[in-house]
Amino acid sequence: PYDVLVVGGGPAGAAAAIYAARKGIRTGLLAERFGGQVMDTVGIENFISVPYTEGPKLAASLEQHVKEYGVDIISAQRAAGIQQSMDDTAQHNLLEVPLASGATLKSRAVILATGARWRELNVPGETEYRNKGVAYCPHCDGPFFKGKRVAVVGGGNSGIEAAIDLAGLVEHVTVLEFADTLRADEVLQRKARSTPNIDIISNAQTTEVVGDGQKVSGMHYIDRISGEQRHLDVAGIFVQIGLVPNTEFLQGSAVELTRHGEVIIDAKGATSLPGVFAAGDATTVPYKQIVIAMGAGATAALSAFDHLIRS
Ligand code: FAD
C-alpha cells in the first residue's frame, strides 16, 4: 500500500504529492487527466511570481516537478469510491480506492483533490468561443475585458458578485437571469442595482454566443415573457451558473459532502473520514483559484503526514 495516495492531478493534487513525497513516504498520484482545469486555461496572470503563463505550460511544469520525486503516477484512471479496508488480517486502518477499471488501490492516508467543473450554457458558440470571450472566472479573466462591454449569465450570488467585480473594470455589464427573480442575496442585489454601469435583465434565456470567428462579438437571448429574440453587443460573456465539484464518486461514502457536493474540510484539510484529507476546488474552501488550491494541497499533505506519524 501507499502511505499517501493523492486522487487528482491538478494544482491541488500536484502540490499535495510533492509535499508528501518530500517527507520520504510512499506516495501515489491517481489522475484522470494531469493538469486538471489548468489544461483548459489560456492566459494566467495571477499565479503569483509568474506575471504571465499559459495553462498547458503550467500543467507541464506541475507534472515535471512531481516527477522529480519518486511519486508513482497512475494516469488516465478514475477513482470510483473510497472506503475503509475490510481486510482486517492485513495492516489495519488502510483505505481502499476502487477504480472505474476494476482495480483497487490501497493507502494509509488519502488526499482527495478531484477539482470541479463549471456548469456550461450548452448553447451554440459557447465551446467555439471558450477563452475567446466566453469566460467562467471573473477573478482570472476580468482584466482582459478592461473598458469593454460584457454580459454575466446567472443571477445567483456568484453572478451578481461577478457583475459588481467586473463593473469596476469594464465599461458596462449586463446580467442575464433565466428566472423572473434573482437568487442572489438581497445586499448584493441592492449593490448591483445601485451601480450605474450594471443592467439586470430577468426572464432571459441565452440561446447563442456569436462572434467573428476569432472572438466574441455578442449574444442572442429570448425574452421569455414576450418570446422575442434579442441581441446584445458584448466582447465577453461570463458564465456564472454554477461550479460542480467532481465528487459524484464519493456519494454514499463516509466522506461527508455539502448539499452542493463539496467535500467538507476543516482548517487542516481533514474530512469526516479519518485518514482522508481533501484540497482544492472539490472542497468547501472559499475561492477556487490555482494558488489557493496549491496551498490547500500542501496543507492536506502536511496533515496527512501528521496523521501517519500519530497512527
Ligand atoms: P482541478 O484543476 O479541477 O484538477 C482536478 C484533477 O482531478 C484533474 O487531474 C482531474 O482529471 C482529476 N479527477 C477528477 N475526478 C477524478 C476521479 N474520479 N478519479 C481520478 N482523477 C479525477 N485559476 C487561477 O488562479 N487563475 C486563472 O487564470 C484561472 N483561469 C481559469 C480558466 C478556466 C477556463 C478555468 C476552467 C479555471 C480557471 N482557474 C484559474 C481556476 C483553476 O484552474 C482552479 O481553481 C484549479 O485548477 C483547481 O485545482 P484543483 O487541483 O483543485 O482541481
Explain the overall architecture:
It comes from Oceanisphaera marina. Keywords: Coiled coil, Disulfide bond, FAD, Flavoprotein, NAD, Oxidoreductase, Redox-active center. This is Alkyl hydroperoxide reductase subunit F. Belongs to the class-II pyridine nucleotide-disulfide oxidoreductase family. Its cofactor is FAD. The protein has about 300 residues and is an alpha/beta fold. It is about 20% helix and about 25% strand. The protein has six helices and 19 strands. The protein has helices at about 10-20, 55-65, 140, 155-165, 185-195, 290-310, and strands spanning about 1-5, 25-30, 45, 55, 70-75, 85, 95-100, 105-110, 115-120, 135, 150-155, 170-175, 200, 205-210, 215-225, 230-235, 235-240, 245, 275-280. Strands 1, 2, 5, 6, 7, 8 and 19 form a seven-stranded mixed sheet that branches. Strand 7 (about 95-100) and strand 8 form a beta hairpin. Helix 4 (about 155-165) runs parallel beside helix 5 (about 185-195). The two termini are about 15 Å apart. The mean pLDDT is about 95. It binds flavin-adenine dinucleotide. Flavin-adenine dinucleotide binds near residues 31, 246, 282 and 289.
Assembly context of the chains: single chain
- Determine the number of helices (DSSP H or I, runs of at least 4 residues): 6
Structural class: alpha/beta
H/E element sequence: EHEEEHEEEEEEHEHEHEEEEEEEH
Radius of gyration: 21 Å
Unreliable segments of 5+ consecutive residues: none
| Sheet with most strands | 7 strands, mixed
From the N-terminal CA to the C-terminal CA, the straight-line distance is: 15 Å
Instruction: Give the rounded overall mean pLDDT.
Output: 96
Number of β-strand runs: 19
Principal-axis shape equals elongated
User: Hetero groups bound?
Assistant: flavin-adenine dinucleotide
Strand proportion, as a percent range, falls in 25-35%
Helix content bin: 10-25%
